[in-house]
Amino acid sequence: MRRIKDTALRNIRRALAVIIALTLITMSLSACGTNEPYAGTGVSPETQTESENSVSDTSANEEDTKVLVAYFSCTGTTEAIAKGITDATGGTLYQILPEVPYTAADLDYNDGSSRANKEQDSAAARPAIKGGAEGIEKYDVIFLGYPIWWGQAPKIIYTFLEKYDFSGKTIVPFCTSHSSGIGTSNTNLHSLAPTANWIEGKRFAAGASKSKISEWIDSLGLKTGGAVSSFNLSAGENGKAPTVTLNSGYEMPIVGLGTYSLLDDVCVNSVASALQSGFRKIDTAYMYHNEKEVGEGVRKSGVPREEVFVTTKLYPNQYANAGTAIGEALEKLDLGYIDLMLLHHPGKGDVEAYKAMEKAVAEGKIRSIGLSNWYIEEIDGFISQIAIMPALIQNEIHPYYQENEVISYMQGKGIVMEAWYPLGGRGHTKELFENETIAAIAAAHGKSPAQVILRWDLQKGVVVIPGSSNPDHIKENISVFDFELTDEEMNRINALDRGEKHDWY
């Protein structure tokens, strides 16, 4: 797969990606109910707490760019959006709180003498801000969120921009409203921070889904250098999965073919069929006893090698002689190089085996490296002993065994999560497909239960590698980009978690 060779460009993308991500956070938190003073009877202002009027750093992953998400919000309409962005990218949140909180009467659109009306009508109005954003000078990018009031940003945003020096900083505005676009509320703010680098903003409606927010962020072409918890699913189409950029700089498709239990000609033909159906990612392992057949299937497919992403794994009984095992995998696959190699699960000598993979990366034999079946209790002690952060961790993940804490923890370290047994595993698939919740959601979308489960994983930011030797099922498994699960449907599947593991790893 293609590598981003220009390090400087990659760092810029990371910085901008963080910017956008946090922009969305801001949006969530900045909405004011309807995102405009309510045209009718009452608005119910959110509780504005002093504890939120401070810079709260939630990210430990911003190595190149420091991002601040500053937002003004009255009712918290955009709060869910903001939290989704924070979870996905990390960063620092700052809530802009008025010294005198707004009441429902203050926000009455129909009352020409209401406080909000008067402020918006006055060019000189600058509502006082309670407290301040300490250490704002250390941030490179500021996401600035607010609700639209009469087509413009609330005047408290003007106060914020005039209060600090934004010279050389990048500002990304975003707003929330039911009907109004961002319009001139964006450009009218530029004169208040003329020495900043302004990026065109975006308007979000109330209730925008996390996936929509993530897709917008990704559509800007900006990749974060921190957490990896969402994919640009809108860039995919049935038969062609979008990619995620690993922390190694290589791009990897987010849907692949798992080859566990596929042997001999069945494996060769399944790999060839998958690639001809649009798959570009194949997963194998030493213990699957089919690396040679996977390589043969890639060549048989006629798809150029550089378009295919192949993952294999070292098993613990190979750790003592990992260098030799890497050479054997290269020979069996016979594809020139290995896109991603994982340690199959923790075992004696795993650190030294990983260092052997690091050496192979330096030698150009392997492009990216990672782990399989590593959990929170193992990862921190492990990464303190190695030089290259794992690009990916592959664990058992399905609706009955969701591992949500593990997913968010690893993603927060910039590690992509991948699900093996995404459909429950052999012996459990039928039960999962017949689950009433999954079956009902599948029927509502005119999709199969398998497609619903795979889409659920992808919307959680988890790569999937379903296995199959059936050409129809293979094609079905990569046809998951023409529908979207609602937040309510995602939550219904999330509620199915039993902590029920289907294999011993």
Automatic annotation (TrEMBL):
Compositionally biased spans, kind Polar residues: 44-59
NADP-dependent oxidoreductase domain sequence ranges: 269-497
PROSITE patterns: PROKAR_LIPOPROTEIN
Organism expressing this protein natively: Parasphaerochaeta coccoides (strain ATCC BAA-1237 / DSM 17374 / SPN1) (Sphaerochaeta coccoides)
Protein name per Swiss-Prot or TrEMBL: 2,5-didehydrogluconate reductase
InterPro entries the record matches: AKR, Flavodoxin/NO_synth, Flavoprotein-like_sf, NAD(P)_OxRdtase_dom_sf, NADP_OxRdtase_dom
CDD domains reported for this sequence: AKR_AKR1-5-like
Family: Belongs to the aldo/keto reductase family.
Signal sequence region: 1-33
A GO term for molecular function: FMN binding
Region (Disordered): 40-61
